[in-house]
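Key result, reporting period 2: structure in, sequence out.
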């Protein structure tokens, strides 16, 4: 961890509460920390009038190496794909120079009252393009 602060990078030390009986981080904790990293990036989006709500459409995780208690980890969020009403995020989880996991999170923009898909706002789409991998 080099202490670099970027809105799409979150660095943590693995807390004891996230450790399973085998000494590795619980599978669900990868999602929790990836979503926290994504939320940190999302705070920097441009303001949009009548912004849609965003719902998780799909998520998946590919595990490479189990993280351990107090191990430093870096969660780097990038945009894998921008669709008409959806966006796919890729979160790389690294410990030192090693890839520990890859988390995919797909959001769909919906009308907040009807929960029907709507197009991504142009300002949001343009901002997201700056984080494409």
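The corresponding designed sequence is given below.
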């Amino acid at each position: 961890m080099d202490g670099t602060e970027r809105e799409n990078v979150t660095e943590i030390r693995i807390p004891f509460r996230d450790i399973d009986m085998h000494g590795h981080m619980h599978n669900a904790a990868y999602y929790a920390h990836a979503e926290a990293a994504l939320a940190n990036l999302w705070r920097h989006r441009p303001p949009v009038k009548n912004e849609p709500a965003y719902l998780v459409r799909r998520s998946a995780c590919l595990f490479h190496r189990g993280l351990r208690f107090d191990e430093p980890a870096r969660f780097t969020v990038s945009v894998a794909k921008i669709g008409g009403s959806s966006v796919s995020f890729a979160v790389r989880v690294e410990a030192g120079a090693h890839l520990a996991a890859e988390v995919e999170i797909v959001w769909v923009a919906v009308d907040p009252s009807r929960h029907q898909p709507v197009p991504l706002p142009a300002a949001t789409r343009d901002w997201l393009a700056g984080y494409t991998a």
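The first strand starts at residue 9 and ends at 13. Residues 27-42 form the longest helix (16 residues). This case is discussed further under Risks and Mitigation.
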